[in-house]
Amino acid sequence: MPSSDPNLKKHLKASAVKQDAFAALRIRDYRLFVIGRLLLFTGFQIRNIAVGWELYDRTGSAMVLGGVGLVQVLPILALTLIAGHVADKYNRKHIMIVTVLLSCLSSLGLAVASYTQAPIYLVYVCLFVTGAARAFNKPASDSLMWQLIPNNLFTNAATWNSSSFQLASVFGPAIGGYAIALNARYANASLGSATRVYVIAAFITFLSFVSVTLIKKPKTILSKEPLSIKALSAGAKFVWQNQLILAAITLDLFAVLFGGATALLPIFAKDILRVGPIELGYLQAAPSIGALIMAVILVHSPPLRKAGKALLLSVIGFGVVTIIFGLSRHLTLSLLMLALSGALDNISVVIRQTLVQIRTPDYLRGRVAAINGVFISASNELGGFESGLAAALFGPVVAVVGGGIGTILVVIAVASIWSGIGKLGALHEYE
């Protein structure tokens, strides 16, 4: 006999929603958001592979490659507190529109610099502008995204959110690699070897702008706090007081800082594996292919019952496959290890994003997203600089293998300092 208990019906309805792998994507504005995010990140990936290939081709310097990451992370570190405050106080959609346009203009600037063979510092200026745009885009976009969906779809949305980034990371490098190869075949490679690639990136970024403008303005609770040290630091204070969030993002920071090998892929492709730009595109795309496969598995699977242990084990696995990649001399093995690294990293990304959003009130989401963005950007861009510096001092193989070992040691340290992270249960129970 069917029960008339409204709480039971509510629970059954929520359970049914969780079993729908496409639940979040059925919401129009969230779907537009994901499309815009996919296009924006695809433009970034196309541009980044072009920057890495062209600068290393022009200079042969690992330090110049490392500088690509450093010059983009500096404005993020400098502007993060004010960017978070702006995201909580003003229209988040409008902030996204402006920052996406700035990214488009930055890619066009790189096209001009490539065509004219401008000095390296002008390339860095364009990348600095991109970093500044990203500093404001991330807290605004992350905060806006969670306003477009109900709380019980956070985990589902986090998986699709990660999937959009990974899908862009598959198509972006592939498109960029083929575009560079075609440009070298049919054009004067010594003059503007990546010009067309930057123009393609700018066009795709503009399409992202179009998608974002179609999103309806959602209802939100904006902060009314005036600009002050207290208001700016509220996000950092919240993260510090929530130790599980602090542990999760600290783990991500140092794991990717030490274990990330993507900044050195142009060196591995050209000098160690001895392959060309097309194969470099495959190498760049491999982590995202692995992450996409894992995303499909996660979105069709029940919520993780032991999220803490899954987080720690996935990062340990990330360190192990990084070590094997560093020692590999075969393209197939290298591609496999990079794919596994992406799959394992995606598990930690979904857990961290869900944990942060479930425990953060809406009026603080911009500032907390900004703090989270610093950790992510620091791990990616500073990780690229660290890898470039280590490769310049000790060689690329030692840099990558040592980074993998460092990642494993970080997991041990985090599990020791924040013992509660390993006891974290099912995240959906907090929704």
Task: Provide structural commentary.
Residues 1-220 form the Major facilitator superfamily (MFS) profile domain. It is a multi-pass membrane protein. Keywords: Cell membrane, Membrane, Transmembrane, Transmembrane helix, Transport. InterPro entries: MFS_dom, MFS_trans_sf, TM_effector. The structure is a single chain. Helices cover 79% and strands 0% of the residues. With 431 residues, the protein is mainly alpha-helical. The protein has one domain (23-215, 225-430): MFS general substrate transporter like domains (Growth Hormone, Chain: A, Up-down Bundle), CATH 1.20.1250.20. The longest helix is centred in the middle third of the chain and has 33 residues, at 154-186. The protein is globular, with a radius of gyration of 21 Å.
Architecture blueprint of SSEs:
Elements: H1 6-19, H2 28-59, H3 62-89, H4 92-116, H5 120-147, H6 154-186, H7 195-213, H8 229-232, H9 234-241, H10 243-259, H11 265-272, H12 277-299, H13 307-327, H14 331-358, H15 365-394, H16 396-417
Domain Major facilitator superfamily (MFS) profile: 1-220
Organism: Plectonema radiosum NIES-515
Main location: membrane
